[in-house]
Amino acid sequence: MKIALIHATTTALKPIERAFQTVAPNIELLHFMDTGLLALMEKSGKLTPEIIRRFSALLNLAYDSRVSCIQLTCSAFNGITSILQPLYTVKLFRSDEAMLDEALGYTTIGLISTVKETPIALQNYLLDKNPDCKIVSLVDPGIIHLLSQGRRRSMTIGLKRW
Questions:
Q1: Domain map of the chain by residue range?
Q2: Whether the Cβ atoms of residue 53 and residue 28 lie closer than 8 Å to each other
Q3: Which residues of 128-146 are buried (b: 16+ CB within 10 A; e: fewer)?
Q4: pLDDT per residue over 15-60, tens digit each?
Q5: What is the pTM for the complete model shown?
Q6: How far apart are alpha carbons 127 and 39 in whole angstroms?
Q7: FRET pair for 154, CA 20 to 30 Å: which of 19, 87, 113, 141?
Q8: Cα(137)–Cα(159) distance, integer angstroms
Q9: What are phi and psi of 111, to 5 degrees?
């Protein structure tokens, strides 16, 4: 089985490869990346026609590689799956779909992210499925840029009890 992975940042490569090696080592992974997408999303704060066009180009390359499915690896862009899924016969998976579906079992959901646009995409998904859930989010946008430079920093996050 071949799975295409669509990346907007290099920081996703190693973690997702480790995850697949642990859970499904026999799956062949194909990586498709456009590192300019994150800057476009940070500038606009939403999915623009340019972002959709560039994602579509990546998806076309992946689809033409005869993959079984296509997995996005950045939550900030997950809304694009509902826009572009009708164009492809293979399933497009959001990076966070299973996690969010499981989180819907709780009345309050905490979101921690490295990109300020991510909570919007996640909240939209959660509220579409359960308009009554309470969502609390915390964003540290500096972390993603440190990770892309290969730097790590420890981060202490204090969350109030809900």
A1: 2-93, 97-148
A2: no
A3: eeeeebeeeeeeeeebbee
A4: 899 999 999 999 999 999 999 998 898 888 889 999 999 999 999 9
A5: 0.76
A6: 26
A7: 19
A8: 10
A9: -120, 130
